[in-house]
Structure formats: structure tokens, C-alpha cells
Records
---
Amino acid sequence: MENIDLTNALRKMITGLGTAKKRHAEQCFVAEGTRCVLEIMGHLRCRYLVSTADWYGEWSCRVADVEHLIIVAQGEIARLSQQKSPQPVLAVFYMPHRPERLSELNEGLYLALDCVQDPGNLGTIIRLADWFGITDIICSRDTADAFNPKVVQATMGALARVGVHYVNLAEFLRNVSLPVYGTFLNGENLYESELSTDGIIVMGNEGNGISTEVAEAVTRRILIPPFPDGRQTVESLNVGVATAITVAEFRRRSVNTKRN
């Protein structure tokens, strides 16, 4: 680890990582805050760790695989931060380069996202995937960038363990051997449906749901029913909430199947 100063060029590079173009040019992204930085630390290589002296004094025992350490005042971190209330640490990590494994999906549970555009929703879904043991999420190319600072923050470090892949989603789903589940308002009741242990669960856009092209590749349509049946409710659930309910039911069934 090398101690260096925060130069104007470095300051410009780090703030520039707020844009997708700069992130992909540098193959790096920014994580902010103690919990998020320490969760990712050890999983991904850290190019720059920027912190106050007090923060580093408290957490240096948890810092690993850091190329460059930059100790600054809190005001400098505030100038670099994308947050309204900056914490005393941020880090620039190299993007993960995971082996291509999408062609090998023949067992396990996976998520597919069709044009999920809100960074907070995507971050929440990545965090949910990590909690429920889903290792890979397949996204349409118009889904939000997983390394957007708001997404990274919402994942709380889960991005280090969950692979996020961008593909032509409709074409990809047409060529998989796993059952493909999709959430629709005219689907079969989730709690009364037969659910497999292995499969791909498709979640749609916040306003429009699953697109027509992707819907054609869905083999099982499911619905999260309101309670009680027939009661007037809101039109739909937030996509993050709907993902949590759906994945939890799949995992509950798989646990019960193993017990039986």
C-alpha cells in the first residue's frame, strides 16, 4: 500500500466515476461509507482508499488489498462524495471480472430484470439476491448500471458477491433450459402455484412491467395476490418489494421440499 496525496487529477478522476462513461473507461467504481467499503474490501481490489486519519486509525485492521491510501480532511471527502451526508471514507474499487457462466445455467435460482431503471430498486434487488443466495442477476441492456453510485450504496456491499450481467434478455431467455417465471397481473396465484427449485424469475419495469418481447419467453406466469382476495388496493407493488416476496416464497418452498 502506498500513501499518496489527493491531486487535482485524482480528484477529477474520482468525481468523474459518477458517470457510466468514466466508470467503464477506468473499469472502476466508487463505494462510500464504512459498512459498504468494508463489505466490498477483501472481495474486490481497491485502487484508492480515501479516508480521514481518525477513520483509518479505527478501521485499518479491516483494510486489505489497497493499492493507494489517501488521508484527507472530512471537507475533502465531501467534495468527492455523491452523498448528501458524506461519511469519512470512500473507496475506488476495480470492477469485478467474473468468468462468463451464463451459458452454464442449468440449475439454481436466478433473477432476470427487464428494464428496471431506478438505481435504488436495482441496489435493493442485488442486496435481496445476496440475502437469498442468488449468485447471478441477468439484466436487459436498458436496466440501470449496477456500478452507479446510488446502486452501489443501496447494495450495502452485496455487489461484491452477486454477478450482474447485461444481455439481450429476450434472446437469452428463449435459449435457456430452466423454467422462466414472470410476474403478471393475470398470472397464477404465487402461493397456489407449483414452483420449482431451479428457475429464472423475471421482474419488470417499474411502470410498464415485463415487456412484450420478454413476456413471450416466460413459461410460467405468476401473481402476488392482494389480501383479502377481491379487495380494492393499489395497482401494483414496488419492484423491489415484489422481488422480495417472490424470491422468499421460492426459497420457502425449496426448504420444505428438502425437509420432505
Note: The chain has two domains: 2-94, 102-259.
---
Amino acid sequence: MKKLLRLLFIAIIFQSAVAFAQDTVAPKTPICSLRLLLPPAVYAVPGHEISIYFDNVILTPCVKNYLFDVDCKAGRQDQERWRYTPESKDVGSFPFSLKVFDTFDKLAGEASTTVYLSPANAGAGKNISLLIVGDSLTDASVYPKELYKLFKNEGNPNVKFIGSHAGHGSEVKEGVPGHEGRGGWTWNSFCTKWTEEKDKPYRAKSPFLVLKEGKPVLDFKAYCDKYNEGKAPDFITIMLGINDSFGATDETIEKSIDSMFGYADTLLAEFRKVGPNTKIGIVLIPPPAATQDAFGSNYKCGQTRWQYRKNQHRVAERLIQKFAGKEKENLFIIPAYINIDCVNGFPKKQETANSRSSVKISRDSNGVHPAPEGYLQIADSIYYWLKYQLSQEK
């Protein structure tokens, strides 16, 4: 009996050792569900690069555990992305498909979308108005300023940027586009915030609220009267959701998004009441910087990149579920999340490897807010969508 038990014990130890050795080579199954997420449409303009970064469209802690296979007649597949700089002769649309394989060459996910390439002169000479709404990524004002520059190029419409400030409460003036970006704000903030904030007064009250009978109420008509000669904007872009979901956990993310959607419905209904023909683009929030170093720099031990990445991906999934297919309601998805380089498009700083080392290394230093290069890619995504919309107008 003892001999039998010894043999059984040895067999268990051997099997465990084999399993450990196999797991150190590659995981048997995906660490988590990939939840491959391509947007309903990808937009492009001749002479400008568009990318789909593979790490941005799958949910995994380690993109290096997967292999990618792009099926598309245009562009090229690199290690970390598909990229494409179209020419004018390429105007039109074409399919894009992506397959993802694990390290055992087993299909882990596949999805497809359509790439729409709009003429470089779409909307040339027209007069349009644009309202940009967002949080700190908008308040930084880098991508609104880049949009302003892009529309100054030949073959574009004349764009009036509507807004109460031009970044951090600064004055709107010639050459400096106005917008409604406010650091730390949520969909809820734009619907309800009415406080007395002395340090940053531009963040004290929602620009879309007015006092009526002593109570703040949404009144987008009053906003348009003040900032756009009483007219509804031709276009509105909204990039919110970061602060709505930042502190969520796996257990609370759905409830956080449900609450966010309640305020989103309220704000969009108010916009729609004033501008039934206004085209509203919901910008899918970008993924975070590529490493935990960025979150350690900003939040110490208060937040991890992986939790934020899971939250961001879920927000994008549900925004697509909610707003995709609503083009007849003038609601659209702007897929900014696919087109940002999370490795090279976020701030970095030089520091010693450790306190005993003289070796200087580069570490990511901001988890959520891109470097200028990343912001410019966000501007590109919005510009491509706007050019597509202009190309559809008669």
C-alpha cells in the first residue's frame, strides 16, 4: 500500500512539473477573453496616415502572446499595427478583416470592418460650425488646435469652432479655437454641475445650464444664442467616459456605464431638441499608456494600467453597442481608440533605473493623457470622420 502511494505521489509531482514547464513556454489558453473590438467603420483621407494598433483592439495584458493576420487590399501590416497613407486615386471604400491567433496557432478571434476613404476636398468652401465637448484631454487643447490647423489646409470648409473658452479657461480669439473641454468632467458634470469654484471658475458651472426660477436647468438653446448666433452646430463631437469609469472595478463597471448612459441620454436629447439635423460624433476614448510605469507615476498604488485598460475597453464596447447603426438619427462612432500609438504617443521621462544605478532609462510618466503626438492622432481620427460626413452631403 505504501509503495502504491509513493508511486502515485511521484506521478503527481511529474505531471505538475511537465505542466509548469509547458506554462513557462506559452499559456495554454488566453489569459482573458480577447474581446476583439473593431469599430463599425474606419475613416481615412488622402495624404494622411491611418492606423489600427493591434493592442488597442484586443483585451489582453500582453499583446506579444498573440499573432495577427490582416486581410486588406490596401496599406501594410507591421509588427504592431496596420497602417495606410492613401492617395487621391484610392477614394472609395473597402473591407478590412483581422484574425488573431494564440501562440499555439489557434484562432483566438476575428472581426471585420469597412474603411471609408473620403476625397481630400470634401466640403471645400462650405461654412460649418463645430462644437467639441470633452474632459481634460480636450481641455489640454492640443487636438482642437490641430483640427483648426487641418481645416486651414486647401480643400476644406470654413469652420467656426464654438466654445466658451480655448483651454483652461483662456479667452477664445482669432486663431485659437474655442471648445468645451473641462478636466475631470463627466457626462453627469455637463448635465448637472453648478457650483462656486473660485480657483478655476470656468469649471464651476456647466456651460449648458442656466438658472430658471432659481434652479439650474439644461438649456442648449441659450448656449447657442450666446455662442453661435442662435443656431445649432452643424457638428458636435463628444469625448467623455474616462472620468465616468476611471475608479470602476470589474464588479462595478457595468453600473458605472449604466449611470453614464443615463446622463448621456439626457445631454444628447437636449442637443437634439435644438439641433435635429446636427451630426453628433461619439469619440471612443483612447487606451492608456503602454506600461504600469505611467500609472505608478500618476496614481502611486491607487490605480493599475490593467484595471483602467479593462474599464476603457468595456466603455468602448458598450458605446458601440449603444450608438452603432444610428446614422439615421445623426449619431455616429468616431474610432479614435484604434489610431493612437500607446507606446510612443504618451509622455516619458528619464530617470535612473534604481537608487543604486547611474543608468538612465525612459519610463512612461502619464497614464491617461497623451503626449502631443498622441493628441495629434486623436485630431486625425476626428478630422477623417468630419471629412467623411462632408463627403456625404449634397
Note: Residues 155 and 377 are 20 Å apart (CA to CA).
---
Amino acid sequence: MQQVQCIDIHHSYDGTRDAVSSLSLTLKRGEVLALIGPNGAGKSTTLRILATLQKPDRGELLWDGRDAWSERYEIRQRIGFLGDGTGLYPAMSAAGYLRFFAECYGLSDRAAAARVAELLELFQLTSKESATISEMSKGMRQRLAIARTLVQEPELLLLDEPADGLDPLARRQLRDILRKVADDGVAIVISSHILRELDGFCDAVAVIQRGKLEVHGSVDDVIKGYEVTRRVHEVQVTRGLQRALEILRSHQGLVESIAPLHKGETIGDPKTADRGLVRVRIHGSEESAATILREMILADVDVISLSKIRSDLEDVYSSLGRDAVS
């Protein structure tokens, strides 16, 4: 598969309100697309249409220029899909669950055993291969469900909220795994509410609202198009607050607020006037923030941290006037 295209797709479940309307987008081999939108926006319907599990009322879904619906039974063999819910069988073992799906896809006993072992290792579940799914933690079950989508080495991977139930370390590991999968030529669509999980990982973004595609393009182009040139940062200063503010302003930093560093302190108190928590919009890339931090340290400012508190994709979403996505 080189590309999958949605062309002017419309679908309604009740004949009155469109779940998706005039949806047109292209997925390319090896590309990771972030599908963003609040609950009820049409993300899950879009994923089901891409998975050939839902026939649209109007429009076309094309695989390399061929009608996907008419060839859906063959195409489904080439898709990995994690929908709403994991679809796990509690009484099965982790290895048995993956082996079951490997056999469903027609892998030989030897190929199935090798693939199951590979996936268990990839998702750090080898020690749980004989454990029943009901005994596994939520995070382990989620990792197993994602592993199942890769059993047959799909060409298109569709994931609905894949990081649900994963701790921060497991989320980073999942991003690394999926990036490797994409680099091997698989097209991936990830629907997620957690935008900061997608920054620096996805190649393209699609923002969907009330069934309509509002934004679609490469992450870099979308960020440029919505003029995300100032990133919101938080700076914790324990000494030298005024010098810190002077340095921020010299770099065109827009100070949004200055708050007490600790509970019980108040702004304006002479005893705590030299410290504070600054929220500031810094112009430019992460290199700009690094330059500012270096200047503060050289100016003898005591800085506990300088950290970005919103992702670039969150800034794009904010610029659309939405607040339903975290």
C-alpha cells in the first residue's frame, strides 16, 4: 500500500445528523497521522470507515486508487485496528491470545510462535506470556491489545486512544515502538485527546469538529499556518526574579503572569519579592528557551526549571477556539 484516500465521505447513523461530512484526506505509507477532536466529533466513525468496517453513505475510500469497499475482505487482512475497547478474552493467556489471532490470519505454527515471541518481547510482556489476561494490570492489557493489532504485520494501523491506561514510561515506549513501525513503511492513524503525547511523534495532523475536517496537513505546515511561533513556558525562579524578567523581555518574551512560588506567599511581599513562578510566551523554537536559560544562569539567577507547559498541537487547537481536547 502506498496511500489510502478518503474522498468527500459522508455518513449518518440516523439519517438526520452527519457523523462525518465532506471528509477528504490522504494517508501515505510510513506516515503517522494524528486524528484530533472532542468526543462526538467523528473520530471513531472515521477510523471505522478507514478500517472498511463501516460503509459510508456517500464518497469513496480508495486503496492505491482501488475501491476499498468492494475489496474489503482482502484489505482487512492488511489492517491492524484497535477500536473503542480492547476486545480481550480474560480467560486466555497473553501468548495464547496472540497465537489465536496469528492462526486467524493463517500463520503457520512455526511463524505464529515466532511472531508471538517477537511481540511479547517488543511490548515487554514476555514474563507474562503464561499469565491469564484477567490477572494482568490495565496497562499490560492495553499493551497486549496493541500488540494484537501488529500480529499480521499490517500495512495500515488504526488506533483509537492507544495510550489509555499506560503510565508515562509505557507511553514513551509505545511512541518509540510505533515510530519504528512507521519507519518500516506502515501508515498509522492515532486518535487521541492527549495532544502533548503526539507532539514530535506524528508527521501529519487532522482536526475534526462536528464531523467536518477543519485542519489537515503536515505538523510543520499546520503549526506555521496557525502561527504557533510563541510557546508557553513556566519558569520557577528562587532568586533573581527581576533579572529573570529583564532577560525574558530582552528576548521578546511575553510575560502572562507572575505567581508566588510557594503556597502562603503573596506577590509584593518584600521577603519573597526575589522569587516567583513566571508564565511566559517565548518566541521561537526550543533553542530559544535554551538560550534564555543559559543567560539567566550566567546572570546569577537561580532557576529551578524552565519548561514548556503546552504542546504545539495544543496551541493550534487553542487557536481554533476549542477547549474539549487536553
Note: The two ends are 33 Å apart (CA to CA).
